[in-house]
Amino acid sequence: MEKMLLKRVDIPNSADIDVAMKNGAYSTLATAFGMRPVDVVNEVKRANLRGRGGAGFPTGLKWELCSRVPGSLKYLLCNADEGEPGTFKDRFILLQDPHLLIEGMIISGFAIGAERGYIYLRYEYPTALVVLEKAIEQAYAKGYLGKNILGKGVNFDLSVHRGAGAYICGEETALIESLEGKRGQPRIRPPFPASQGAWRKPTVINNVETLSNIPYLIAMGADAYAKIGAETAPGPKLYGVSGMVNKPGVYELPMGTTLRDIIYTHCGGVRGGKKLKAIIPGGASTPILTEQHLDVTMDFNSLVAAGSMLGSGAVMVMDETVNMVNVAYVLVRFFAHESCGKCTPCREGTSWLYQVYKRLMHGEGKLDDIDLLLYICDTVKGKCFCPLGEGAIQPVLSSIKHFRGDYEQWIKSGKSAHV
Amino acid sequence: MSDQHEEAHFCRTAGEKIMFSDAIIDAIKKVQQRYPDQQGAVLPALHIIQKEYGKLTYEAMRFVSQQLRVPESDVFGTATFYSLYRWKNPGRHQIQICHNLSCSLLGAETMIKHLEKKLGVCEGEVTKDGRFSFIRMECIGRCDGAPAMLVGDDYHGELTPEKIDEILKKYE
Amino acid sequence: MENTVTVTIDGITVKVKPTATILEAAKAAGVRIPVLCADDKLHPYGSCRICIVEIEKSPRKFTPSCTTPVTDNMSVKTMTPDLAEARKRILELLLNNHPLDCPICDKAGSCQLQDLVHEYGLGPSKFTEKKRTVAPSYHSNVIDREVSRCVLCGKCVRVCREQNAVGELAFTRRGDKSKVSTDFDQPLDCEFCGECVEICPVGALTTKQFKFKGRTWNLERIQSVCNYCGCGCRTSFETRLGRIVRVRSGARNYLCSKGRFGWDAVHHQDRLTTPLVRVSGELVPATWDEALAMVVTNLNVIKNKKGADSIGGLGSVRTTNEESYLFQKFMRTVVGTNNVDLLARLKVPKGLNTVFFSGELSKISDHDAVLVLDGDVGELNPLMGIEIVRAVNRNYKKLVLVNSGFNKFNRLASVVLDYLAPEAALADLLPAMKSGKGGDRVVAAAAILKEAASVAVIIPGRTTDKEFSQIKELLSLLKGVTTYPIVRRSNLQGAMDMGVLPDYYPGYQKVGSDTMNRFAGSWDAILPEAPGLNALEMLAGIKTGKVSALYIMGDDPAGSDRGLKDILNKLEFLVVQDIFLTETAKLADVVLPACSWAEKYGTVTSLERRLQQVSRAEEPLGESKPDWDIIQTLARKMGGPMHYGTPADILNEIRSMVPLYADLAMGGIWARERSPLAGADMDLSLWSDTVMKNEVITADRLLFSSGTMIGRSREISTLCRTKAEV
Lengths: 419, 172, 726
Ligand SMILES: Cc1cc2nc3c(=O)[nH]c(=O)nc-3n(C[C@H](O)[C@H](O)[C@H](O)COP(=O)(O)O)c2cc1C
Ligand code: SF4
Ligand code: FES
What we know:
Chain A has helices at 17-22, 28-33, 37-47, 59-68, 89-96, 98-112, 126-141, 172-179, 208-220, 222-226, 259-266, 300-305, 324-338, 344-361, 368-380, 387-413, and strands spanning 75-80, 116-121, 146-149, 154-162, 203-207, 236-243, 249-254, 276-280, 289-290, 314-319. With 419 residues, chain A is an alpha/beta fold. Chain A has three domains: 17-226, NADH-ubiquinone oxidoreductase 51kDa subunit (Rossmann fold); 236-319, Roll (Ubiquitin-like (UB roll)), CATH 3.10.20; 324-411, de novo design (two linked rop proteins) (Up-down Bundle), CATH 1.20.1440.230. Chain A is globular. Chain B is 44% helix and 10% strand. Chain B is elongated. Chain B has a four-stranded mixed β-sheet with strand order 2-1-3-4, covered by helices on one side. Residues 1-15 of chain B have low confidence and may be disordered. A seven-stranded mixed β-sheet of chain C has the order 15-14-27-26-25-16-17, sandwiched between helices. A five-stranded mixed β-sheet of chain C has the order 2-1-5-3-4, with helices on both faces. Chain C has 726 residues and is α/β, with parallel strands linked by helices. In chain C, helix 8 (321-335) packs across helix 22 (647-657) and helix 12 (422-435) runs parallel beside helix 14 (465-476). The model of chain C is unreliable at 722-726 (pLDDT under 50). Chains in contact: A-B, A-C, B-C. Bound molecules: flavin mononucleotide, iron/sulfur cluster and FE2/S2 (inorganic) cluster. Residues 98, 100-103, 139-143, 146, 148 of chain B line the site of FE2/S2 (inorganic) cluster. The site of iron/sulfur cluster has 14 residues of chain A, from helix 14 and helix 16.
């Protein structure tokens, strides 16, 4: 497939507006502004673009809900929190092609009627902060941001809001709270952000990759776009592959490429020719799969059918040498650290899980602890306020399901890992 | 594990007097204009101060509270929610090393042990010469270059103990 | 009629508003769903997850009922074996890190966690790790926080913000390290309303006052009314072995610091327990007979020598309606003078009961906009303050604030008019209302006020003539106005209603020949014809020798204004009837010990003009007696026919004499339309440039200062930092 989202990424200096423009940046603005906003929304709807941030919610539908709310003060937020462990795809766009994102945001803002946008950028991307602020400055200088863009009466202001280290702020309502200068704890829904979001105004939140699709989608039209990749969720997809593969990195492939293709064709297979043991297909909160699942296609529906999720498309590969107890430990430690603390099951459950894993890792586990872990997961399951808590138990459940042997062996060995 | 939420961290920093310069006040006023209300500027204001002084103190939070007319407890609650506001001075170069899954699969723990030995300090501490400090991080979005770390704002990936030694030399 | 949806809860079908939550629908169906973090006062929050239910045909197994809106034909089960197990598990999580120190916890017996754990029959936990250690307790004035007991439901944090807009408490840190803190974990430094203590479902917040004073199941509860300001909050006295140990909010469901903690003044050592008479310059204990005989003799002597009009009576804003009524009746019928007044009229808002009548406090938040002309409202009438906060935070109404300083209302206001005095603000606002021109702020304020279909206007407790006329003009430009004059003194409305006024009989019936004949007939007495001296004239009269004796009931002019000491010293004879040996009482020739409002029955009338019942929670201290009883005993000794068995007898007489009270039910509000003063362009307030100008404020914050009583509350005095003369 011809590269779209990553087209400019390899061009040297493509974060500079002149370079980017020479390679097509901002060329879709005129097309978009030639349409009515509602037609832009309909085009996105027709293309069946689904959000790339994790949940896969139809983007057009989200936009429609927001654009229908009367009133002129609306916000467009770009979710560049990229906190899901294993995920780094958005970073490529942020660092190398910020103008793609900015162009996408201008068009999206135009479509939903928002004149103010923010990019919620994670703290851990200090370089991206510099790049983005520069890019925004350049876009203002060229008149792509600000008042009366292209003389078409479209206004759009954009700034970066820097996070401060909290995974939960990737969740859209927590992101809003954080943008408002508060603790990043998720809000009750309804009201959904589309009707009452940032500062109680209608708000759309989209992932970096989602928004970056927009200029191409509008340029090529919904029909052509919908032909790319899986039928249920068309479009190009950025897969970020890491762990024990020969060529880790971000790969732009049609939605619905198989895991086998990704790992063996594109990433050059498992390091050192070792045997594959486990795959996390979509970031830390998606259930672990095994080599049996290599032929599952990487799209929303197929992965759910296989018992996991596409999430952010962050593939993490583990070979035969890996101790799955350790994997679960690392991920549970992460979730316990990142639980926002609002709801009882997640706050207490992740913390309890972490303590039990710590015990296991120190060689003080008992075989009964496996059941205890399942008991805690069952306690947490289905009761959390937001998806974080639910995600936190996935590594535990799936690692025990597929690799109970690892647990038994580790506990019986009485070994202790220094962690 | 990186634990910035320890009780002691907050309680000991009180009493240090920091004068907030006009430059800082101006920077905060400027960033305020980006938001429809004053509270929106809490995070950026804290960033501005942390960037200038290396860490946050009670005075800093109280100052932000007064500048933005947000209750002190709110600023305190917000600041402590996030794991990357600092309560202790870091070294001249703060090393943020990832210990999440992709990095851990490729040896993050070994790198961390190496750092501890090399620098002679534990996580969160500053070397005697004040040059380095390091903290563990959750995923820093550099999994493709695992194991990875940030020194200040610079990224370094595919670490090995030898490579770490080389990198550290570059920082005075 | 708003459209409704049909919901079935455990087989019971109800119709509810489409915006209702499942929890609300369940309440309507009479089904109880257990909750920890939900509260009617607060926005839904959904953190504890105890309230989960099962919805038929839902893809989710469990749904939180407190945050989920109903949909039409939804069918909900609130109790299934799975739900019981799920709730048990959540309780297990909450107990994992709970200290389980119930034996020494003040909340035991009324702890929601304890009750739920008991209800769900939770056994020993599978949790074998070490309990989390959080700093166990933080002490501050009045309130202690035992953080280790906290279940992080956030109710205290939310009540402090949503209801009171103080924001003293906040969640800090994250995940399992989350905890409720103040700013930088310092001791509380807030309004100390104690609402956080009241709303805490467990024992994480407790009052020092009640610590180890009693088990909740051993307490008796007596409904009464707070005596500290005009809001007249319902309170519940909780007693153990006949002594008050705690006060909690009654029907309206909130209280301020004074209402909740200030009651301990009634246990103060300064309380008078016997009558005192002055013998060779010293006040010495005496029997009731001796003391009253001395009053009778002296008043009769002066009356005979100089006439009844050389005697004056100053009534009280703290006594009950019945007592105020008897006091003026005593002065008019027994002493024979109309010289009866309230010095507190210096604090009556101009235009009260004539141009301005107060609306119901709970309806402030129904108005589209609230205009606050005195930024101190939250300190002067705390409950009015809370209702203003609720208007903004709960009902999303607009607030226009005139305030020269910065306080919590500034954060809530849509527009702040930052002027030194209302006069200047109004001078700009009025033209903006009329022409739409002016500075940005006043124009914005004018736009809000003009757009609003209804406006609640908070009237300052004290205004200049100019401001008064400006306010009147402004009101004529607004739609749907309800006024809320700030009335600090507790039963000021009642005392005025009862005719403790030199020119009005009870019920604002003007002193004059017509009314005089009617009252004279009913009271069976000869009444003086001419209006009496007002309070200021009486004080002035002392200097000129026109007034030789004063009978002061329940007021302390010398305590509030040291300058008045010299004047009072000039009197030939001074009787003071009070519960404390006040500065004024120290000057008296006879001091009569009254009992406190916690020791007697009667009624009071709040600034809403609401009639409410005061009830006895404790036996009168020592030989003290209720004011009404003292007055009638004295009256009988002076030949006046007063024979009342109980305050209820007096209230019956009031009802027969005062049309406003004729059919006023307990808890009801007398209608402004029936007031003989309604619409009259006149003024019940007094104005003096000298008297009370240098009022002694017993606290650095208006909120904690209310003179004689509050100054003797040990709890409240811990909240005051200074004693300042303002
Ligand atoms: C705990 C949690 C963390 C999330 N983190 C991210 C994130 O880092 N980046 C992101 O784009 N979406 C994240 N999401 C998904 C967002 O909530 C939201 O679905 C997304 O930003 C919507 O954009 P999209 O429709 O374009 O995917 C997260 C969700 C949850 C529940
Ligand atoms: S599941 Fe609950 S505690 Fe966890 S992050 Fe979401 S709201 Fe916070
Ligand atoms: S896991 Fe280390 S950078 Fe992502």
